[in-house]
């Protein structure tokens, strides 16, 4: 990665993740997910993710992979985490080849999200964020969504 990247580590330092600074500046590529699986794997209210092309991410170290089969639509998600400290690292969906959701909690820079997924599972005491696209579940595969995926390098 070049000097225009941001790098962080898991809690114990065994896994290093680098992403382009420009990706962090794109609000529409940052999102929260309130689905139960994201809450359980992170031990938190929501996962906080940067969605970008897998080719733009550098991971050093060897994360463990958990194959999450218990999803709404049956898609098997690949959830990567540090096998030592348990820090969530990233997520991949094989139906969206090339897309990676990098967990932003390990980074110092925490940009405002541009989208929220699984709002139907958000606790009612958490209020919506002004100006953020809300989705009750996963976004529907509209032409606009396909264009966005292509712009970040995802094959659909």
Automatic annotation (TrEMBL):
Sequence ranges assigned to domain CENP-V/GFA in this UniProt record: 6-130
UniProt KW Oxidoreductase keyword: no
One example GO MF annotation: metal ion binding
Record key words, sorted: Lyase, Metal-binding, Zinc
One Pfam family, short name: GFA
InterPro entries attached to this UniProt entry: CENP-V/GFA (IPR006913), Mss4-like_sf (IPR011057)
UniProt record similarity statement: Belongs to the Gfa family.
This protein's name: CENP-V/GFA domain-containing protein
Organism this protein belongs to: Adineta steineri
